[in-house]
Design brief:
single chain, alpha+beta, three-stranded antiparallel sheet, 5 helices, 7 strands, elongated
């Protein structure tokens, strides 16, 4: 070690490990621990060297605010406790807040319909991911719920639209349908169908009546064409 290293260590010990007679009647060590490390200890004991909050702008602001001082929306501050203690306190409060909604929502949710989209082999390891996107949309005007998705196996040129009424007791026409893009952008029927075949990269609802899709050419070549299309649901 160099003399500089020894001086650095000596200064550190002098600053942080001085004897503290006022702490003699407390459990544990009789010296100040390193000030950062004390916040990281997973203990419920008070900090040995609590921070000095004098002049803190936030505390002064709360102290001078009649409405915020006793507000139940502000998380209580524990200047004598470590971050682990505060973290446990916050987790407990968050769990308590989420428990009631979870119970209510859980009891209200039930299966409305079941559709078989595809079958997979026994060995799931060798099965590719067949279901892509999906994108959800709720049409509040017509009380309809939509799901857009694509199937990656044999229908890469199709986008599927699942439509359900928000009132599960009611049904809608064409509950699920597929839109095939294929070679619909070809200039004439004489063009080779595979030369301008398109697949769907992404799809979102633009509004209640329009779907926006991003298409790409399926031909394996450089500079594949990309198309942004607006499709009316009608």
């Amino acid at each position: 070690m160099t003399q500089k290293d020894i001086t650095f260590v000596a200064d550190f010990l002098t600053e942080h490990f001085n004897e503290a007679p006022e702490l003699y009647n407390r459990k544990g060590k009789y010296f100040n621990v390193e000030r950062v490390g004390q916040y990281l200890k997973d203990e419920d004991d008070d900090l040995v060297s609590p921070p000095n909050t004098e002049g803190n702008q936030w505390f002064n602001f709360l102290k001078d605010s009649t409405h915020l001082k006793e507000s139940p929306l502000l998380f209580p501050y524990y200047p004598e406790k470590s971050l682990h203690f505060v973290k446990r306190q916050m987790e407990g409060i968050i769990d308590q807040c989420l428990q009631k909604p979870a119970d209510v929502i859980g009891k209200a949710v039930h299966q409305a319909v079941c559709m078989s989209l595809y079958k997979i082999s026994q060995s799931e390891d060798s099965t590719p991911r067949l279901f892509k996107l999906p994108f959800l949309w709720n049409d509040k005007t017509s009380n309809l719920h939509y799901v857009l998705f694509t199937m990656l196996e044999n229908s890469i040129s199709k986008i599927h639209i699942l439509r359900r009424h928000t009132d599960t007791s009611r049904s809608v026409n064409n509950g699920i349908l597929a839109v095939e893009f294929g070679n619909f952008l070809n200039n004439s029927i004489n063009e080779i169908s595979e030369s301008r075949c398109y697949s769907c990269l992404d799809a979102h609802f633009y509004d209640d009546e329009t779907v926006t899709v991003v298409l790409k050419e399926s031909v394996q070549q450089e500079g594949k064409e990309r198309v942004l299309a607006q499709l009316p649901l009608s």
